[in-house]
Amino acid sequence: MSSAGQHSATDAVDPRRHVPRTDAVLAEPRVAAATARLGRELVRAAVGAVQERVRRGEVPAEHEAVVAAVLAALPAVPAALRPVLNATGVLLHTNLGRAPLSDAARAAVGLAAGTCDVELDLATGARGPRGATTVDALLAAVPGAAAAHVVNNGAAALALVAAALAGGREVVVSRGELVEIGDGFRIPELLAAAGARLHEVGTTNRTSRADYAAAIGQETALILKVHPSNFVVSGFTRSVGVRELAGLGVPVVADIGSGLLAPHRLLPDEPDAAGTLAEGADVVTASGDKLLGGPQAGLLLGAPGTGAELVHAMRRHPLARALRVDKLTLAALEATLRGPVPPVRAALDADPRTLRARAERLAAALAEHGVDAAAVGSDAAVGGGGAPGVTLPSAAVSLPRHYAAALRAGDPAVLGRIERGRCLLDLRALGPAADADLASAVLACTS
Ligand SMILES: *Cc1c(COP(=O)(O)O)cnc(C)c1O
């Protein structure tokens, strides 16, 4: 009895002991709605964390305050991914998921997320060809392609080339094109793992047509051209174009990497799918989430004749099933191809003067709130394994360095770039609609 009395005495001086009960907080309608959206475990964990903060005296021991703290701590979706505004000036930032999808592609993903006719002919009620409309969109977008197939990513496209077209046989490839794609993954090892034997020709800096010609024999399955998409070799160099290789009597597969479908004036050294097919490549492989601006995907495009037959052979290979893309990818890719200009393309085509005007407006608005902000010129880049060495003129808002960490911790997070001791928010990779969000994010760090 006396202990109960002691308790109430303590409670009277220490209201933190009145921690609202879990059941009561979970029963609150707004919290119950969050449970319906996010699942019980996540919300329960958030309630537990807030109760702990109440015990530490960080949150008032009142029902309403606890509910507010729980709601504030909950994520928008039950997944740990957080949205990040890409203010790095790197258009395709691999750590940020490369290309952001267009609104059209996002809407298509939402639609495909339910049950949909991905493999059904609604007119007859019979099974239909999976992803046929996406393939049609690809063929419409790439003049000169007679067949197309979509797999999980660029690496998967190469694996399928190796397994289906060169299993147990030789792939002739220049030593100047034995590329590491990133994160320790190397194209020659990928080809070997998929069952092809590599026949390397030439040297790091120089390979001639005669080198290829001498390597071709009974064992040759194909010649592979790999675009050096993340490095530049300069000086005493020589490489052989697809046009010269096309006459050597074996199929030529060209990995163009970036997924540019047609030439772009700012990227004169970046090969495009239509141009590479026109030069005589039988098959072109590329990524979907680089300069094409779509979802992660690997594209296989075949020229009329041999190329189309090779793509058909790859589509029927057992591994094709293992590399098959889901309906979300098919939907996003088709919407990217048929829909309005995707964000990556808009960023590439952005007028530097417009970027400068945006930076000035933003800096002025921030300065009005006492932020040490200035508009500055900036050099942006394609990044993500595309157009190495190409500088895209851009504009940025320059802030004191300490903003960098604070902005990363914000919601949405903002990732800038540190340059000469300042935190730069480069506008090239962001559409104008992001400016208001950038301003709020910076001001949130200031308050
Ligand atoms: C990016 C790239 C790849 C790998 O493509 P993923 O879609 O990342 O798998 C392969 N080859 C080249 C030339 C590339 O640029």
UniProtKB/TrEMBL annotation:
Origin organism lineage: Bacteria, Bacillati, Actinomycetota, Actinomycetes, Pseudonocardiales
GO BP: conversion of seryl-tRNAsec to selenocys-tRNAsec; selenocysteine incorporation
Entry protein name: L-seryl-tRNA(Sec) selenium transferase
Molecular function, one GO term: L-seryl-tRNA(Sec) selenium transferase activity
Family: Belongs to the SelA family.
Keywords, comma-separated and alphabetical: Cytoplasm, Protein biosynthesis, Pyridoxal phosphate, Selenium, Transferase
Catalytic activities: L-seryl-tRNA(Sec) + selenophosphate + H(+) = L-selenocysteinyl-tRNA(Sec) + phosphate
Main localisation: cytoplasm
Residue ranges, annotated region (Disordered): 1-22
Gene name of this polypeptide: selA
Biological role stated in the UniProt entry: Converts seryl-tRNA(Sec) to selenocysteinyl-tRNA(Sec) required for selenoprotein biosynthesis.
Required cofactor(s): pyridoxal 5'-phosphate
